Amino acid sequence: MTSTATAPPETASAPPEAPPAPRPRRHLPALLVVPAVVLLVAALGYPVGWQVVTSFQHFGMMQQFGQPPEWVGLANYTALLSDPNLWVIVGRSLAFCLVCALLTVAIGLALALLMGAVGRVGRLTLQVALLLAWAMPVVASMTVWTWIVNWRNGLLNWALDRVGVDAQGHNWLVEPLSFFVVAAVIVVWMSVPFVALSIYAGLTQLSPEVLEAAEIDGAGGWKRLRLIILPLVAPVISIVLLLQLIWDLRVFTQIKLLQDAGGVANETHLLGTYIYQLGTGAGDFGMASAVSILMLLLTVAVSWYYVRSLMKEES
């Protein structure tokens, strides 16, 4: 009887061990932010530091020629805070900032909704017009605007005369109220394109199904706008409103060029032009630096509420 040798059963090969999962690099996001922070500190740290130090010094014209500045401590701030003219300028700047920012966001929202409602040709026309207005250099556009409101041969007085309003020879820049109306129109006109295009970009991210469902449920246009569209684009509106508050509080070029075109400087100063007058005009760079620090604190105070709101939404 022959015996057959049985081969030993093959041993099952063990599955290969999975490679260890990579450890999450918790500090990588912070390291990626470091280059941007270094560049920001290098670009802004020295100017802001110089402003802070100079605000505690007497830094006039003699210091421009090498004489060491005199340390005066809080004397510049004491003189400013006891000056009633400063508080008039601060109140005027805050009022101008709030009016221009709110008007800009309201008009920009209306144009964004209009771009979403019209057809392709109308939308492209609006977008090109907004981009052209936004891309125009400030000095070039101010040259056109100062010609429009010129009291001798301006387009505004000419158009009013044609419709029966006697405005020939009326100077719109002499009276402070009409001066700031003109300035507000110019500032809003220059800022609306950015707001309109930003809000329209947010509107394009809305789900059409949500709006269609609301329409099927009987919600009219006003209800859809108030209960659906505005809450969904509220983060975009908050950001552009915050930016407008900051930009309009520190507006300078438009006010200065209108003053040069015929406005009374002492009655139409905002914080930006007041700092320019103290520094470049009067040569008192210590006082100008103190007003600059005050303007920085006002900017932080005005925007703090919106920054906190954005941080809460992010968290």
Automatic annotation (TrEMBL):
Transport is among the record's keywords: yes
Membrane topology of the entry: Multi-pass membrane protein
Keyword Cell membrane: yes
Transmembrane domains' residue ranges: 30-53, 93-116, 128-148, 179-203, 224-247, 285-307
Record's subcellular location: Cell membrane
Sequence ranges of Low complexity compositional bias: 1-15
Keyword vocabulary terms for this entry: Cell membrane, Membrane, Transmembrane, Transmembrane helix, Transport
Source taxonomy: Bacteria, Bacillati, Actinomycetota, Actinomycetes, Micrococcales
InterPro entries on file: MetI-like, MetI-like_sf, UgpAE/MalFG_permease
Protein's UniProt name: Sugar ABC transporter permease
Gene3D superfamilies, per database record: MetI-like
Cross-referenced PANTHER family: BLL4140 PROTEIN, DIACETYLCHITOBIOSE UPTAKE SYSTEM PERMEASE PROTEIN DASB
Family (UniProt): Belongs to the binding-protein-dependent transport system permease family.
Domain ABC transmembrane type-1 residue range list: 90-306
Stretches the record annotates as Disordered: 1-23
